[in-house]
Here is the input.
Amino acid sequence: MKEIGPQPEIPSINKINAAVDLTVSDKFKKLIPEKGRKISKLVWQRSLLSASALALILSSGCANINPFREEPSPTSISMPVPEDHSLQNDIVLNSEGLPIGHLLTNGTMTPFNIADVSKMKETAIDSETPQLLGIFPSKVRYPDSNPPDPEHQILSNLPEDALSTEQLASNGVTIIQADNTNLSIRKQAFEEGGPFAELANQHGKEKLTIVLVDAPFLSKSFMKDKKYDGVRDMLTDPPAIDVAKYRADAIKRLQNQLEELRNNPNKELLKEYSESINASIYAYENGIVTDERISEIEMSKYPEAAGLFYAGVSKKGKYLDRTIFAAVGQQDLNATVEEVYFDSNGKLTFYNAPRDGYDDQDDIQTRVSRESCPNPSDFTLNTDASVSNPKSYPYAAQSPGFVLRHEVTHDEDVAQAINLGKKPDYSEYDTDMGAMQGISDAWNNWKDSNFTDNSGYYFVFSLPKEQGGGYILTKVPENKSALIFG
Amino acid sequence: MGFDPLVFLGIKNLKGKEMQEVSNNLRNKISQYILIRISEQLPTEDVKRTKTPEKLFSLAQERIPDLSQKMKLFLTDFRTEFDNNIKKH
Here is the structure.
């Protein structure tokens, strides 16, 4: 009979979880406070609200640690902070160093209840848990992290090959311009191989209307101007968002997270993370996460909300009149807020945080391609999209120029195809890839010409000169101060 | 092939939903640990400017020499510390 030795103990789930918590918190405590505070925000904003984001980080990290895999580094992003950050000057302190009010730009002061403030500081020290005093608009503005360079240049003049309104009309194209953004189209789009070549062949018998809307997504609510009268009703707005419910759910979710922390035997976690969660609750409760922001978050979940291709009733089997909508406005990604709190030692502390309400950022297709003359690597590929899922978007709405290319590709693949008796392709995946092919072709032409021929970027977005002027290729009109090409 | 935290830490005999939950938690916590270790290697100002974990990771790839070697070290450290902490409980 074989003798069996002592078997290794199989740890319980609770034991595993406790050990892993301890492993992380031990390391966390050794970080210097400034880094620790930031990391706690990054980690807890994501881990509690979006575990999948951290899983992704780990996956990408493991590409590097796995000896069997070596993958190229993704494009790095740095975000410099200006030195003139000065909210602290707006918080008025008394002789004991306690804050007594917030000084507004008009010179008036919103007073704090000094008894509450004192109590807050005491609580912070006694409980060794940070106490949030409030959140205030921040003066810090993050500059464009991708400023133009010779490859992504800003031009000072509209290209000479941009067609006039009359020339566009003779080719069947009408543009309803947005309030702050004008679109021009260069002649290359109408030449052989261009997306409007077939339109040009029809000499105005077929008509395409391009509608620009100065908003981060399409909605009738942004199209009240008379100029939209003829096209507004082509849009079907997604179901109305229950903003109040969203807000209440978000607060409840955050409160549950706080409760989980309170019940966690590791009290260090509560100490470290309660302030950031309280800050989020405060932001929702006090309207710092605005109703508009909540609407943006929800609407941004609909990729099609940035652009729409509308083909009217066919006549004798042909779609003679088509309409393309494109949202060319930009969410204010720069906005930050200042959190003011007593840290666990009772020290008054200021923290510049990203504006809250981005906790569902993983689901948001923010428009990040901010350069003129983009190349495919300026866009983020959605790896969940696949050709087998025709409703998936590999790139989606990452810039107005790309939105336009996507919708124009629909025109080619559906309306023009049907009109020519070809088989239409309704796949969003194929359409997105087709649009990216246009970007790729334009970039290759631009690069191969040693950056002298940018004619492949045939969409030109222009903005009023009194707002700064300038011309760039496929630039998102984030600052409303330049002409852009796509 | 993806990273399996259960295999990495030698945790066996879990099944179904239980295995999934533990795996997810471990993945999450190891990610946090790695971010902490990465931030140790970066200047404070750079860490403070970072807005998302993904951007911190991108920054690390840009600024930290031999990051992939360091990542292996971080993970090995995690496993060692985890093993020690399991024994404590």
Q: What stands out?
A: Residues 211 and 325 of chain A are 5 Å apart (CA to CA). Residues 14-65 of chain A form one domain. Chain A touches chain B through 54 residues (CB under 8 Å). The radius of gyration of chain A is 27 Å.
